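User: Is it possible to get a 3D structure for a protein together with its bound compound? The compound here is guanosine-5'-diphosphate. I've pasted both below.
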Amino acid sequence: MSHSLIVFEPSGLVIYMQNQKISPFNEVILSIVNESATEVSPGFFTSASPVSQKRFYCLSSKGLYAAIYVDIITTLDSDKIKHVLQDVIQAVVKFREEDVTKMNTAIEFLFTEFFKSKPAAKATERELTPTTSTVETPTTGKKKGAKKMRKWVNGELVDADVNESALDYSGASAENSTRAQEDVKVDSAAFTRQNNLVLINELYDGESDSDSETSAANAKGFFSKISAYFGSAADIQEVCKKFTDQLISKNIAPPTAKLIIDRIRTKINLKTVLITDFKQALTEELIKILTPNVSTDLLYDIKKVSKSRPYVISIVGVNGVGKSTNLAKLAYWLLQNNMNVLICACDTFRSGAVEQLKVHVNNLQRLNNGSGTESKIELFEKGYGGGDHVVNTAKLAIAYAATLKFDIVLIDTAGRTHSNAKLMAPLKKFGDAANPDKIIMVGEALVGTDSVEQAINFNNAFGNKRGLSFFIISKVDTVGDLVGAMINMVMATKVPILFVGTGQTYTDIKKLSVKRVVDMLTS
Ligand code: GDP
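Assistant: Yes, that's possible. Here is the predicted structure of the complex:
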């Protein structure tokens, strides 16, 4: 993670600088001057720059500014950042005149302590530890360039241990792919059988009573704290602020949180309000936002269409979010439903992308052979190449699938930076040529405010006539109850969530439980 810190006076005089890089800070200064930065709380600003791929936080206090930047995909607890910036300003005020070395040491300590990894939170550790019924870590070994797995620890994103990346075959090669296959297991209890269908369970189905009690206790915690603070009825302004902060603390982007709370305020339209009434209205609003307004019954859709031709789904998203892993999870589930699946390798840019899919397909073939289903899975690939190669590969795959009676074609696409117009432009051409029945964007639960822009840019990338069909929100297992990215993405686009990814095995895929997610956001 790249990050930097600067302390300066309103005159522009720099008092302290870590990492000796001032140029990205020009953007944050400009965003404050132009008032384009979001004011999270009085004197505390945040903004993101698609140009430098940085997210800024800046605190103005005691006649000084302290600003920090991190990589744009990083999500940090803004309260914690505010505190560390407060401490930094305190150190400057205290030591600036008397001892500059002491000042520098104090700031450096605060800065490094803030970014230092801390031990994993209990829930996160539990969820990431493979159990006997899940995938064991393959012995592939990490290659240079393999993607790093990150997880949420005490309000920070940290790199996870390599051995937690069970399904990361981004460094796969032909020689190690055979070894990877030997280790793959799945959780046979993860899906439910009903009327000849294999259905994906809901998020947190089968959660133990003690977990439910914990979440009920947490709910009571926040709720009683704020009830006690305000008494029974309270000034609507104060209540709105408390609930806005609550939503932001769950990873909902500040402008999105404000929009939601403003809607409720307008609906209530009173000067004072009972906390219970406000919370009820907020719950209803969040449920409304997350409830899909189109059918999410993918099995029904596929069965209907595949009588006459293969059903086509393409998977899009930024690099490393879990596109190929979740595509493989979908494939596993469809195979369980006796469907013939063709996986098409249309990430023809990133070296290793085709091999990565090959490993998944080999694993899935092996799992499928022993499962008693009559379905089949194959990989369609035409190697690497630019220009029209992607579109041609997709078209050939669809024609091949039609000839050989595949029910479904799952097309993997190259990961791309959503803010880079040059990389996003080919999506329109691809969408027009492959004309998929569904376009699914995989988005990470780990991403904070930037998830809004990611969702909007991908939704707009296919031209006026079509947009994204669904989201799959990956890595929900790594964020605890900070599930605000779901609201950010759905609210920005009105695109519903189809599934959520809850881990690194082929059965770590769940249907969204709107109620549970809303409980987490409001507790
Ligand atoms: P892509 O570049 O978007 O295709 O990303 P990959 O599918 O290669 O996934 C990147 C990393 O994220 C790999 O280590 C995956 O195992 C991991 N990953 C994907 N989905 C999940 C998930 O739901 N939970 C967790 N914990 N890890 C995931």
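Residues 147, 149, 165, 167-168, 170, 317, 319-326, 415, 474-475, 477-478, 501-504, 508 surround guanosine-5'-diphosphate (CB under 6 Å). The radius of gyration is 24 Å.
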